[in-house]
Design goal:
The complex is a heterodimer of chains A (171) and B (418). Chain A has 171 residues and is α/β, with parallel strands linked by helices. Chain A contains eight helices and seven strands, in the order E-H-H-H-E-H-E-H-E-H-E-E-E-H-H. Chain A has one domain: Alpha-Beta Barrel (Aconitase, domain 4), CATH 3.20.19. In chain A, strand 3, helix 5 and strand 4 form a beta-alpha-beta unit. Chain B folds into two domains: 237 residues, 2-Layer Sandwich (Aconitase, domain 3); 146 residues, Aconitase, domain 3 (2-Layer Sandwich). Helices cover 31% and strands 17% of the residues of chain B. In chain B, helix 2 packs across helix 5 and helix 11 runs parallel beside helix 14. Classes of the chains: A alpha/beta (171), B alpha/beta (418). The interface between A and B is large, with 39 and 48 residues.
Chain lengths: 171, 418
């Protein structure tokens, strides 16, 4: 099996990035995830143009407690739809983390990553081993693996797909 | 070795002996959704199940944008009503005089009960810990999955013990305590944890005050927050419980905690959370005189009858200097305030009273700010743009501080006007 390796440009965010900064409450009425992508990080000071400038494959890097605040799943959908393949943060708020897993969206815990990566650095992430390389500086890091149940949910592409598969298995 | 509240409740629900770190699957007793029951019902339909596992376990309460301010919101409400009919959901609080803010209704109407496991598709679901429930917020996909299966998985959380002693000095409230705690341990200080409030200071508090504490557990990252199910709780639920499946459960004295904090209520002073994070603590004395343009007395955090009484005491016979929006947390609170003459006090003082609901708290309607404007609010979040405009500023404070500031048009120490 070919190794699952991602390469992309980093966008670095700070600590305690709340759900209004990721996806503002103004757009909560939208139900189609495809429409949500354009509003990603619109309220984040200095990165208001993120949704326009980020290319599919770019990687979001953040500090502690990423996604704190509301339980809105939009804050996961918007980045997924924009083509951000993975988030690498020092830690996640609980509900954000569950929402990501339940949507099959990979979010890795990487200690001290905001000290080791700057905006625009090229990153390489091995999704199988959790190894992360900053190709710009040569520095290496490691992302934490998730629990088996979480892995299984993610492997199915999310909780809803996982449940469907479970139901089919039982029949 | 003793067990924490979370270990006991999740263990009982899972039917096994559990400790922190273990993953368990449990059946939640009540699943609460608000206006977002509409998008959740769409996700539910994708699962391919016809009926929810048990309609009596679902509670829907429309509150986020009521009555509907836009066609989009109206359409969502319509979808919720159709789903309620189709699934036979009896616990439904529509846009009428029986409802209010979802978390208030859950407590007031006897859904929040000791020892129950409860989930809600809203982050402030942790409020029900004031009644001794294990309650936590979840996302939409997860709620849809729970409707379908009646099951949800949890990692049994580590616990934090907050022991509270002493009593409040005049002008200081439960809101000042929780803003101080969050300021001390920061927005991620209780990430993934179950926060237990202990001590004589908590025993002294009303359920309204305990709800304010538990409501803001999420603002320090907590999975749930909980107070002991004491006599005050038992009295409140006696003739009101929606099920008899509850049981008063509390942590053992020798339970093991990941972290322990202690607070003396007598040492606290009126405070605010400055823009744009809830952990941006400042005593009012440090920032008094900051000009404001709007005051908001409302939300699931601080709009109960006790909060309205406290604000009315300050506003009685006086006039506000800035636009002041009052939104009681439920229609029964609204009626009670009417009977006690509090609504007259607010109207005489120049305040606006809106219908119970979330109002401007998360920027939907009924009090959006203009660029450059400053609002002092009794709500729970001051994130950039939370009240609808990213160039505006929100200070969080107690009902007393909000009322005192409304009088002066600037952030004011309530002790100056009490």
């Amino acid at each position: 099996m070919a190794e699952n390796i991602l390469r992309g440009r980093a966008w670095v965010f700070g600590d305690d990035v709340d759900t209004d900064l990721i996806y503002h409450n103004k757009y909560l009425g939208i139900t189609d995830p495809k429409e949500m992508a354009q509003y990603s990080f619109e309220y984040y000071p200095g990165k208001e143009n993120f949704a326009k400038e980020a290319k599919p494959g770019d990687i979001v890097v953040a500090g502690e407690n990423f996604g704190c605040g509301s339980s809105r799943e939009h804050a996961v959908y918007c980045l997924k739809e924009l083509g951000i393949p993975v988030i690498l943060a020092e830690s996640y708020a609980r509900i954000y983390y569950r929402n990501a897993v339940n949507n099959g969206y990979p979010v890795l815990v990487v200690p001290d990553i905001t000290k080791k990566v700057k905006d625009g650095d090229e990153l390489e992430v091995n999704m199988d081993t959790g190894e992360i390389k900053n190709l710009t500086t040569g520095e290496k890091m490691h992302g934490d693996a998730v629990t088996d149940l979480e892995k299984e949910i993610m492997a199915h592409g999310g909780l809803i797909q996982y449940l469907k598969a479970q139901a089919e298995k039982q029949q | 070795m003793g067990k924490t509240f979370a270990e006991k409740v999740l263990g009982k629900s899972a039917g096994e002996d559990v400790k922190a770190g273990q993953v368990v699957t449990v059946e939640p007793h009540f699943c609460m959704s608000h206006d977002n029951a509409a998008p959740i019902s769409k996700i539910f339909k994708k699962i391919g199940v016809e009926k929810v596992w048990d309609p009596d376990h679902l509670v829907f309460i429309l509150d986020h944008a009521v009555p509907a301010p836009t066609d989009k919101h109206a359409e969502n409400h319509k979808i919720v009503r159709e789903f309620v009919k189709e699934q036979g959901i009896k616990h439904f609080y529509d846009v009428n005089s029986k409802g209010g803010v979802c978390h208030q209704i859950m407590c007031e109407e006897g859904f929040a009960l000791p020892g129950l496991v409860m989930v809600g598709s809203d982050s402030h679901t942790c409020t029900y810990g004031a009644y001794g429930a294990f309650s936590t917020g979840i996302g939409r996909s997860e709620m849809a999955a729970t409707w379908a299966t009646g099951q949800i998985w949890f990692r049994v959380p580590e616990s934090m013990k907050v022991t509270v002693k002493g009593s409040f000095k005049k002008g200081v409230t439960a809101k000042d305590l929780i803003l101080k705690i969050i300021g001390d341990i920061k927005a991620d200080g209780a990430d993934y944890m179950s926060v237990e409030f202990h001590g004589p200071g908590i025993a002294e508090m009303s359920l309204a005050e305990r709800m304010t504490l538990c409501n803001m557990g999420i603002e320090m990252g907590a999975k749930n927050a909980v107070c002991p199910p004491d006599q005050k709780v038992l009295d409140a639920i006696r003739n009101n419980a929606k099920t008899d499946a509850w049981e008063a459960i509390w942590a053992d004295d020798d339970a093991v905690y990941a972290n322990e904090l202690e607070y003396d209520l007598g040492e606290l002073e009126p405070c605010v959370a400055k823009p744009h994070t809830v952990d941006n603590y400042a005593p009012v004395s440090e920032i008094k005189g900051t000009e404001i343009h709007q005051a908001f007395l409302g939300s699931c955090t601080n709009a109960r009858i006790e909060d309205l009484r406290a604000a009315a005491e300050i506003l009685k016979g006086k006039e506000v200097a800035v636009r002041t929006i009052v939104i009681p947390a439920s229609w029964s609170i609204y009626r009670q305030a009417m009977k006690e003459g509090l609504l007259d006090v607010f109207l005489d003082a120049g305040c606006i009273i809106n219908n119970p609901g979330c109002g401007p708290c998360m920027g939907n309607h009924e009090g959006i700010l203009a660029p450059g404007e400053v609002c002092i609010s009794t709500a729970n979040r001051n994130f950039k743009g939370r009240m609808g405009n990213k160039e505006s500023f929100i200070y969080l404070a107690s009902p007393l501080t909000v009322a005192a500031s409304a009088l002066k048009g600037a952030i004011t120490d309530p002790r100056e006007v009490l």
